[in-house]
Amino acid sequence: MESLIFFLEDAAPLLVLGLVNGAFYALLSLGLAVIFGMLNVINFTHGAQFMMGAFVAWMLLSWAGIGYWGALILAPLIVGAVGVLIEKTMISRLYKLDHLYGLLLTFGCALVIEGLFRNNFGVSGLPYAVPAELRGGIDLGFMFLPTYRGWVVLMAVVMCLLTWYVIEKTKVGSYLRAATERPQLVQAFGVNVPRMMTLTYGAGVALAAFAGVLAAPIYSVRPDMGASFIITVFAVVVIGGMGSIMGSIVTGFMLGFVQGVTELIYPPFAQTVVFFIMAIVLLTRPAGLFGRA
To answer: Would you say 204 and 180 are in contact if contact means Cβ atoms under 8 Å apart?
Structure first.
């Protein structure tokens, strides 16, 4: 019994870390799935927009005195508005072209955005404190759970389920799905399809920015923080199924947990286990676990 307790004490922090990473994977891959599923655009700018969310939260606190709770609302709106501007001026011109053009454009946008922040803020991380209401932790007996990490997982679950509900169970979501398949038909019913696509891209970007605000107190706010996530997040999207909302949610949390277990069993393999799983899934189910052929 004592050996089991000691094992849980050693394993629990790594599993919690994996679950927290899984929460960010789920939120970021959800935004990518929304954009690809509704707009057929592979948004490589997503990591930079995640980073922008964290930086906007830091700016709101440092320059305007607006704390964490205000940033949770304002940062996604601000970064989402920037996403709308990008969609209207650049991405909307590529909808009828091959996916490769959108991938190259968004990759270039990511490099420009990261370069601008690197030139203005440097490469060292900027601190962002955990809000006073979420400091401390909860003693679970076999481990001490930091309150803020529990909050991150809870908010990720709530946002993921809310997004899934809006897209799959509401009238707005039905219009979005129909506009993906038959845009001319939906427009004939009086729906402004271009505006809907613009707002959809903005919503996907806002999800990335929301994740960035959640990440700011855990990771240092730095220009390359999105780059460290985005490759793994793309692997999550591929494993779950490109454009699959539920696939992104389930796979994000699952792979974060798998990384935590791998970190416990064989740490050198923890960063590559996701890509190993991706290779197996692509060989056996090219459409992904939840995707459609």
So the answer is: no
Other C-beta atoms within 10 Å of 170: how many?
11
Angle, nearest 10°, between helix axes 68-89 and 46-64? 130
* DSSP 8-state class, residue 130: P
Neighbours of 63 (CB within 10 A): 8
Structure tokens, 287 = 């459409």
Q: How far apart are CA 72 and CA 212, in angstroms?
A: 9
pLDDT per residue as tens digits for the range 220-255: 899 989 887 888 888 888 898 877 888 888 899 888
CA distance 109 to 115: 10
- The count of other CB atoms within 10 Å of the CB of residue 278 is 19
Question: Are the CB atoms for 258 and 277 separated by under 8 Å?
Answer: yes
Q: What is the DSSP letter of 221?
A: B
CB atoms within 10 A of CB 124: 8
Q: Would the pLDDT of 193 be above 70?
A: yes
For the entire predicted model, the pTM comes to: 0.90
Neighbour count for residue 136 (Cβ, 10 Å): 11
pLDDT at 293: 58
Quick one: how far is CA 122 from the chain centroid? 24
Region label for 192, one of left (φ > 0), alpha (ψ between -120 and 50) or beta (otherwise)? beta
| pLDDT at 287 exceeding the cut of 90 | no
**Phi/psi at 223 (5° precision):** -60, -25
